[in-house]
Design goal:
- This protein has 745 residues and is of the alpha/beta class.
- The chain folds into 3 domains: 3-349, TIM Barrel (Alpha-Beta Barrel), CATH 3.20.20.300; 368-583, Glycoside hydrolase family 3 C-terminal domain (Rossmann fold); 631-744, Immunoglobulins (Immunoglobulin-like, Sandwich), CATH 2.60.40.
- Helix content is 31%, strand content 17%.
- The strands form 6 sheets. It has an 8-stranded parallel β-sheet. A 6-stranded mixed β-sheet has the order 11-16-15-14-12-13, with helices on both faces.
- The longest helix is centred in the first third of the chain and has 17 residues, at 108-124.
- The protein is globular.
- Bound molecules: alpha-D-glucopyranose (GLC).
- Alpha-D-glucopyranose (GLC) is lined by residues 57, 87, 131, 186, 265-266, 498.
- Residues 57, 87, 131, 186, 265-266, 498 line the site of alpha-D-glucopyranose.
């Protein structure tokens, strides 16, 4: 529909119809309303508004969407189609590894591909907007939503956010409707920095830190053309994002030029009352509308107060029109006026759900996101030959045959389609070469406060002492007679995700006891770690011969684990987040400031920035990961030591594959700005190059350094570079200090 037609449509709407477009209700409210007119919902929204709501969330499925849309339009005077939005974070029916795992691929192109595949499945299921990517920078593993983040680096998070937006929205602009979903970048802003790592807690930081470290990833999503932004639950400089005009209008709209739709997070307008910046729903509605929030997700604040606020002159009707126009434009861009069902097609669902190509992509992504943390005496890769009749593997642990390990936000995934490690090993090995035992439960009462309630809801029950003893002994017997004990251990899915904050970063339940006892009786121990956040692995490191971090690897996780265990693929992942020695180190991140008393980790003197009971360094640093090939990095060379503002210098390193096995190396460029008008991190990732090396091959990897790469928010908060000394390195992870110097003149 042309713009002027949209304007006519807007002008034809009543106040109630306009307000309705800015209200989103949960599917069941609409679904119920769709079947029996007049169902009052618990949001306190009138029937008249419900009949005119603009969108709904997490209603998916071609048949269901068609039914709800049809029922809605039949009762609608204005015939403006509903917008169907959903949490399709890292896959639809085909579930990919969690974003924190995908952040280990250092391959934004891959993320774009898997988001495009996700869109293909989602559009067939009628979804039109996805609440993804989550672009929140994370530095505190106690926060459960590390799961959904791509990690602790601003540069990589920006590249990933842009790639995911492009992937989800691929084809959206094409004439032929039905391709691509609108992408909603969230949670704007800095939701990943809650004090204490406790979800929904206070976020408070300087504008400099916000701009320098937290905003770049959202901005990259906006620059990639995302159609929507979601406000975050947290405060920014004392004002919750959802009512924060500086953030939503001055920064997002005026500075960044964002013209899309702003939606709140779930019930976030009403939460302005609990935050203490609004005395009631009416004031909350006013604050949100002033800030520039367009859609109220699942509260009655807009529905029940906007009309009065306009009548009283507390808000300008022009703001209402502006917000409604943004929603109409998005519906128009999605082609809904021409086809309200836009690609929702049950036949197409059958073609694309879990399509072989999507499964293959899921397997590829899982292999590329796994991180080999330990491999003593090169235990891995195992030789497949050995296990076709001769040697034996004991596969032990609660994640050996676990279909739940998809992560909390795989809500549209098909768990029955998950390939577990047990299934994949059984496909590959002779029956006499594989024995399996669960060994113990994932977690116990002491690990999860509400576990009894959760079990009651899900019909599960804790093992009784006899079962715990029996299962443990059965597992130990298998371990004792095996050549390799493969332990599939990890953090329970319910411990991560939204609301999943922890004060401990342990592998829960009896799992560590299982590992300790297997260690005593098994010849070799390889641990597969399933988790959604960094955990403290010091004891696991000591007890295992090999330690492979598999995260929650998605639908094809079992096959990918086998590919890596038996070496048909090598683990390519490099850590997207630092793994600590202790939870007491939180927050922990590689790009930290020097402090006035930097500790070198050696000098036994007290008065330095250090702990008396733990090293400062992570157990495994950002960017770290072992491979099956062995790469040696030569000295870093610069073609000049002086960088002019308009010029560039090239920094290179020679990488030699000293092993007999080809592999992919992830070379990382780190730069340090030695002196600035404000303190600068001891290093910052400024480039990544993945390079394939044949056995014995030597290749030169080069990066161009230009002045724009050196810009930052200085003393006056202007984003610019400052002349002076810089140090640079190209390294396999973030533990190496940049040494080679150059000067920006
Ligand atoms: C949740 C999450 C957000 C999600 C939204 C809709 O509370 O914070 O990420 O998209 O509500 O389900």
């Amino acid at each position: 529909m042309r713009e002027e037609k949209l304007q006519e449509l807007l002008n034809s709407l009543s106040m109630t119809e306009k307000i309705g477009q800015l209200v989103q209700v949960p599917g069941p409210v609409l679904e119920a309303q769709g079947q029996e007119l007049g169902i009052r919902d618990d949001l306190g929204i009138s029937e008249e508004i419900i009949r005119n709501v603009g969108s709904t969330l997490n209603v998916v499925g071609a048949d269901q969407i068609r039914r709800v849309q049809k029922a809605y339009l039949e009762k609608s005077r204005h015939k403006i189609p509903l917008l169907f939005m959903a949490d399709i974070i890292y896959g639809f029916r085909t579930v990919f590894p969690i974003p924190l795992a995908l952040g280990c691929t250092f391959d934004p192109k891959l993320l774009k591909e898997l988001c495009a595949a996700t869109s293909e499945e989602s559009v067939a299921a009628g979804a039109q907007v996805t609440f993804s990517p989550m672009a929140d920078l994370v530095r505190d593993a106690r926060w459960g939503r590390c799961l959904e983040s791509t990690g602790e680096d601003p540069y990589m998070n920006g590249r990933y956010a842009a790639a995911m937006v492009e992937g989800f929205q691929e084809g959206l602009q094409e004439e032929r409707a039905g391709k691509g979903m609108a992408s909603c970048v969230k949670h704007f802003a800095a939701y990943g920095a809650p004090e204490g790592g406790r979800d929904y807690n206070t976020v408070d930081m300087s504008e400099r830190r916000l701009r320098q470290e937290y905003l770049p990833s959202y901005k990259a999503g906006v620059e990639a053309g995302c159609e929507m932004i979601m406000t975050s639950f947290n405060t920014v400089d004392g004002i919750p994002s959802t009512g924060n005009k500086w953030l939503m209008d001055d920064v997002l709209r005026k500075e960044w030029g964002f013209e899309g739709v702003v939606i709140t997070d779930y019930a976030a307008i009403a939460e302005l009352i609990a935050h203490g910046v609004a005395q009631d729903a009416k004031e909350a509605a006013r604050l949100a509308m002033e800030a520039g929030v367009d859609i109220d997700m699942c509260t009655g604040c807009y529905a029940n107060n906007l009309e009065a606020l306009i009548r009283e002159g507390a808000i300008d009707e022009a703001w209402l029109d502006r917000a409604v126009m943004r929603v109409l434009r998005l519906k128009n861009k999605l082609g809904l006026f021409e086809d309200p069902f836009r690609g929702a097609d049950a036949a197409r669902e059958k073609e694309v759900f879990l399509a072989p190509g999507h499964r293959a992509l899921a397997r590829e992504a899982a292999v590329k996101s796994m991180v080999l943390l330990e491999n003593k005496e090169e235990l891995l890769p195992l030789s497949g030959e050995d296990f076709r009749g001769g040697k034996k593997i004991a596969l032990i642990g609660p994640f050996a045959d676990n279909r739940d390990a998809l992560g909390m936000w795989a809500i549209h995934g098909d768990k029955s389609a998950v390939v577990t490690v047990k299934q994949a090993l059984s496909e590959m090995l002779a029956p006499e070469s594989l024995a399996c035992a669960e060994g113990c439960e994932t977690l116990l009462e002491e690990d999860y406060t509400d576990l009894t309630a959760v079990y009651a809801q899900t019909g599960k029950s804790a093992w009784n002492p006899e079962k715990r003893k029996e299962e443990m002994e059965r597992a130990l017997a298998l371990a004792a007679e095996s050549d390799v004990a493969v332990l599939a251990l990890g953090e329970s899915e319910i411990q991560g995700g939204e609301g999943g904050s922890r004060t401990k970063l342990t592998i829960p339940g009896d799992q560590m006891d299982l590992l300790r006892r297997v260690r005593k009786c098994a010849k070799k121990v390889a641990v597969l770690l399933f988790c959604a956040r960094p955990l403290v692995l010091d004891e696991v490191k000591e007890l295992s011969d090999a330690l492979l971090l598999v995260w929650y690897p998605g639908t094809e996780g079992g096959h990918a684990v086998c590919d890596v265990l038996f070496g048909s693929r090598e683990p390519e992942g490099r850590l997207s987040m630092s793994f600590p020695r202790s939870v007491g180190q939180m927050p922990l991140y590689y790009n930290a400031f020097s402090t006035g008393r930097p500790y070198d980790g050696r000098t036994p003197i007290r008065f330095f920035s250090r702990y008396t009971d733990c090293a400062n360094t992570p157990l495994y640093p950002y960017g770290y990961g072992l491979s099956y090939h062995r790469a040696a990095y030569g000295p870093v060379r610069l073609d000049s030591r002086t960088l002019n503002r308009e010029g560039e210098i090239t920094v290179s390193v020679e990488i030699t594959n000293e092993s007999g096995r080809a592999g992919v190396e992830t070379a990382q460029l780190y730069i340090r700005d030695v002196t600035g008008s404000v303190v600068r991190p001891v290093k910052e990732l400024k480039g990544v190059c993945k390079v394939f090396l044949e056995a014995g091959e030597k290749k030169t990897v080069s990066f161009r350094i230009t002045e724009d790469m050196l810009r930052f928010y200085g003393k006056e908060l202007r984003y610019e570079s400052e002349p002076g000394k810089f140090r640079v390195t190209i390294a396999p992870d973030s533990s190496r200090e940049p040494e080679e110097e150059f000067v920006l003149v």
